[in-house]
Amino acid sequence: MTEANAYEGPVEAQFGDYIALLKPRVMSLVVFTAFVGLWVAPGQMDPFLAFCSILFIAIGGGASGALNMWYDSDIDAVMRRTQDRPVPAGLIGREEALALGIGLSILSVMMLGLAANWFAAGFLAFTIFFYAVVYTIWLKRSTPQNIVIGGAAGAFPPMIGWACVTGGIGIESLLMFALVFFWTPPHFWALALFMRDDYSKAGVPMLTVTNGRRSTRRHIFAYTLVLAPFAIWLGLTSVGGPLYLAVSAVLNALFILGGWRILRRDEVAAEADGYTVEKRYFRFSLYYTFLHFLALLAQGWVGGW
């Protein structure tokens, strides 16, 4: 594949390539957390309008993914983890990705305003802007705190789901935000520990590149300690209950224990065994957020405090 192909994309794209452009795996977390935020929010919403609201939030999340792939196509092309994405692989052109991202952004915001309310729609617009401009264009290539601040974009969906029902913000939605926000850095830093060369080649100032792996390990453990109180505090609010608290207590104990093991790891030993502990911690971090929101969903079903 030539460098020109990575940017122009003359090859015919398939439907699946356009789906991949929307980052479906990331979108699935967006959809699920937004749905839980909507489900546990106080008040009633017509089921059809609720379905439409989640659909438009998902489209907005996909729009963000397309805009991210448009701007990051140059660094995606040099990273093993991302070089097969539609734009660097030459399947979809950069201009096409940009047009699709902008078009879906406008569509999702306008339709969410009509289906739910304009506060939620404005919140969605801000989230797309934050991810595409603040994180992707500004922070990602300029500071090792990129994933810390930029992680807010992935933490907004449950607040948007909540706003679809209530038309505003509550302490519960803020704590759902905090749960995802403080989870994001250790999740991505664990990945960066065993994918460091990719970020170095791409010139992305991930913490592992700028501060080294030892500092990254300290940061991971520190964030697990900060995250736990917010996750448990959510269980003491109107959307919480004994079921959620029990699940959260177990998950946070395991998350802190995993962070401690990563902190105590010797770099030579870690490299020798192929970063197995770090990879296991990263995989567990994927379940951590999902299980917290699943517990919220179940708690809402059986009734909370």
Secondary structure: elements and pairs:
Elements: H1 3-8, H2 15-21, H3 24-40, H4 47-71, H5 73-76, H6 94-115, H7 118-139, H8 146-150, H9 152-155, H10 157-166, H11 171-194, H12 196-202, H13 207-210, H14 213-234, H15 242-263, H16 267-272, H17 276-302
Q: What is the N-to-C succession of helices and strands? A: HHHHHHHHHHHHHHHHH
CATH architectural category of the largest domain: Orthogonal Bundle
Low-confidence stretches: 1-10
- Any idea what the CATH superfamily of the largest domain is called? UbiA prenyltransferase
Largest sheet: none
Say how many strands there are: 0
Task: Indicate the radius of gyration in whole angstroms.
Answer: 20 Å
Q: What structural class results from the helix and strand content?
A: mainly alpha
Mean pLDDT: 92
Annotated CATH topology of the largest domain: Tetracycline Repressor, domain 2
Strand content: under 5%
Alpha-carbon distance between the two ends: 58 Å
CATH class of the largest domain: Mainly Alpha
Shape: flat
